[in-house]
Amino acid sequence: MGEAGVGWIAAIIIGGLAGWIASNFMNSNTGLFMNIILGIIGAAIASFIFGFLGVSFGGWLGYLLAGFIGACILIWVGRAIS
Hints:
With 82 residues, the protein is mainly alpha-helical. The protein contains 3 helices and no strands. Helix content is 77%, strand content 0%. It has one domain. It is globular and about 30 Å long. Keywords: Cell membrane, Membrane, Transmembrane, Transmembrane helix. It is found in: Cell membrane. This is Transglycosylase associated family protein. The chain crosses the membrane at residues 6-25, 32-54, 60-78. It comes from Brucella rhizosphaerae.
């Protein structure tokens, strides 16, 4: 998270927003806490995947986009497992 220039409190807020957007996009009924978790972990996963592919995002908008994409991936994986 430090690489993107986003602090911990901002990461929680942006992660929650990214998770909420992803849960609405994927028609998933998750609560606030799970939205935050999905957004933060999703951003970390998406940043890793995009970094591996040579794509990088920066700042608040990049973290939000990475969180959204990663949270969608996590929701999809969760549905595939259950």
